[in-house]
Write a structure and sequence with these properties.
- InterPro entries: KH_dom-like_a/b, OsmC/Ohr_fam, OsmC/Ohrsf.
- It comes from Pseudomaricurvus hydrocarbonicus.
- This is OsmC family protein.
- By secondary structure, the chain is an alpha+beta fold.
- The chain folds into two domains: 1-38, N-terminal domain of TfIIb (Single Sheet), CATH 2.20.25; 40-138, K homology (KH) domain (GMP Synthetase, Chain A, domain 3, 2-Layer Sandwich).
- It contains three helices and six strands.
- Strands 1-2-3 form a three-stranded antiparallel beta sheet, with no helix packed on it. A three-stranded mixed beta sheet has the order 4-5-6, covered by helices on one side.
- It is elongated, with a radius of gyration of 17 Å.
- The chain starts with a strand and ends with a strand.
Length: 141
Amino acid sequence: MQATVKWVDGAMFLGESGSGHSVVMDGPEDHGGRNMGVRPMEMLLLGMGGCATFDVMSILQKTRQKVLDCRVELEAERADGVPSPFTKIKMNFIVTGVALKEAQVKRAVELSATKYCSASIMMEAAGVEVSHGYEIVEAAL
């Protein structure tokens, strides 16, 4: 896996993934940025959420659950001072579908947390307290 991050100006950077996709990262105005993109630490959080949601959806699809929507809401706390790494991250999956089996949703979230999500597992290995929860929403047909 490869990536490149290029300085644009001020606190703005352009990241390009090895697969050819780009994203703008920028800082707040009070730190020389123009607030034109996500912050680098936000990118880490979003990456973790994407990784975990990919796992959960993949597992639920393999178990033939009729999922219509899946999202994860992330809430992170950071240490005071510099550096200010993440100390806690709460992940809550909201899975909407038809006749979803709670045991399958619970198992998908657990497997992501303990076996498949490299980003989440890496954060925990670094000492971040990561918690996982879920809600099931029955779709109105």
